[in-house]
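cron nightly-structures :: item 1 of 1
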Amino acid sequence: ARLLAISKEGVLSLSLDEMRAMQAHFAAPAVRDARRQAGLPSEPTNVELEIIAQTWSEHCKHKIFSAAIDYYEDSKPLRKIKSLFKEFIQAATVAVRAQKGAADLCLSVFTDNAGVVRFTDASAVCFKVETHNSPSALDPYGGALTGIVGVNRDSFATGLGCRLIANTDVFCFASPFYEGEIPPRILHPRRIFEGVREGVEHGGNKSGIPTVNGSLVFDDRFLGKPLVYCGTLGLMPLTLNGRPAWEKSARVGDHILMVGGRIGKDGIHGATFSSEPLHEGSPATAVQIGDPITQKRMTDFLLSARDRGLYSSITDNGAGGLSSSIGEMARDTNGAEVHLERAPLKYHGLQPWEIFVSEAQERMTLAVPPHLVKPFCELARKFNVEATDLGLFTDSGNLNVLFNGRTIASLSMDFLHDGLPRLQLTARWQTPAAPAAGALNSHDVKADILALLGRLNICSKEYVVRQYDHEVQGGSVVKPLCGARSDGPSDAAVFCPELGELKGLVVSHGIAPRYSDLDAAAMAQCALDEAVRNAVCAGADPASMAALDNFCWCDPVASPENPDGEHKLAQLVRAAAALHDLCIAYGIPLISGKDSMKNDYRIGSITISIPPTLLVSLLATMPDARRALTMDFKKSGNRIYLIGITARHLGASEYAQHLQIKETSVPRLLDAALTRQCYQALYKAAQGGLVRACHDCSDGGLAIALTEMCFSGEVGAEISCGAAPTAGSLTDTEILFSETPGRIIAEVEPDHEAAFIALFKDLPCRLIGATAAGETITIRGCAKTELASFSRIDAKAAWKRTLDF
């Protein structure tokens, strides 16, 4: 009980097994003797306690993804999982890279701050997406600001450093119009919405990095904790000063240099408080205070230092501050000696442990060879950046921390990084009841389409998009908004990071948390397919794709406070397995990722858990960005084709939620191999100039995708449901509003129709109608009768009205 009290009172977020492992370590005779010789007490000092807590935190160690799991399905033991990460995430990448052989573009995966893939013969691209959920719940502006500048540092400090070229962001909130009672310590969703929006805006815009891709997702279960995903891409040369730019390593004798902002009391316990549910004791001081201007000066300086070969290795001061950055880099040499009194502070009064674990922003730690310390510091002064020599990397086997000449921490590197006891967990999945039977038919298709357009997960997000600079750096090709009036919803971003070169980068994402209510495996599958589908719609080469996984989960560890933990863990197992299988089927490696496992709110009798959520972010290339596609119809008289098979997939759909229909036919991919062939054919069509516009069918299905293409391009259309490729016999309603993944609408000019059809021979691709002059959108049913006829102008007004703040 006392051990657990120490963990709780100190915001250490360590379990009883972990506290006992620490207790046993410090009780070992050899450890006691070594501590006595170093002038340390037998009990851990507060500095050591904090170092271990942040190093062992869920945030840093990903304990659940590394746990041993007994997985049961319908009460029967199905398999023993040694590690979700190794068996599903890493294994998928290993398999895909083996498939690709010489065509493999991966350079660095799962070993650094971000994943790195080859871009051109002379350059590489790195990509990382992080979350800042817990800080944003307590301080939306500060939490989100440090989320975006923090992931900037993650990508920047990959390899020997890179030039930051683009940001992405995805936010998950409760409804900004929420009218229910707000539980203690929770801010109103509208306030979180505005604070997060502004925080990421200030962090990105002031750093001179374009925000090229993102989305908003709404579900009232995000009331307890919002999800704030921030991502950054960087460009680096393949070689720097005769060595691969994506590789780095500290060396024995290198000096430990901290550069950038000073240390304060902000960001203390950031790693540990993010590793537990939000509760009455969650400290607001865990939220960092960011300053993007200081960070911009620092990154400019470090790019110059990188090009001059002035350091051996670099990493960011993120979760855990100096404790984390030095502790991780010291693994290269097996030891470090830190003189903490040298650290520059924002103000007096910080305790040594606070200095070492503070996550105060805009800081990097570097390994600098002794003979380069002077030129490194001289260059820092020219850029008006503070650089401080804190000690040395050693091969002593220990992380030694001193303050004014006195040792205040001495921890074995082996114990610090490998002494964490492994979690032993159980997951139990109960197969839900069979899908609801009976055909569905809309009573009023026009009214349903107009209502769906105004729903929060479908409506225009222009109000938010306009706050972000997507033009800075000058490489933008396909922007977040497109169409005749530049206000249509782009599927993906396309930009040229190397000005003067035509090769383009395509960035997209997929996210579908509401499907988890029925099956998290289908949710994960749909998230990856949506990311792929969006990128293909913009003209991306399917063979060039690489993905990132960001799992945000409700607490999957069973306890008296969390009685359904085994079910939540089973959802996680199923999602990871589905992602693994589809990555292999599509030939897409996972190059980086992050998990956030305690997205719950628990105060008093109130528990609010987020829906299990997977964000898949995707990076791809296209050889010539002039071939990029947008989703808006271009002119009247063109043919409209539907690619992909539609099934009766209305479970957890926007249509079902709008009409409050209890439907269990969750959207899932029907045939991965066939869908991949469709995407490859569409890429060939785009490269051949055979397609004028493409748009994926996702939230709201075919009806919403068609309507968006019409009002974005200011073109009318007439389609027939009966022409759509379907799995079995479907009603008009099921064809129009199903959210089956793998489907795309394509606009083809009559002169190119024959060549387009030839590419899709034996694939599910059918002519469903044509674009038309004027403003009318007409939809006919399978029986050729008119189901709906409405104005694209009225549809656009309904789409824009909801978030027109």
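cron nightly-structures :: done
The longest strand covers residues 163-173.
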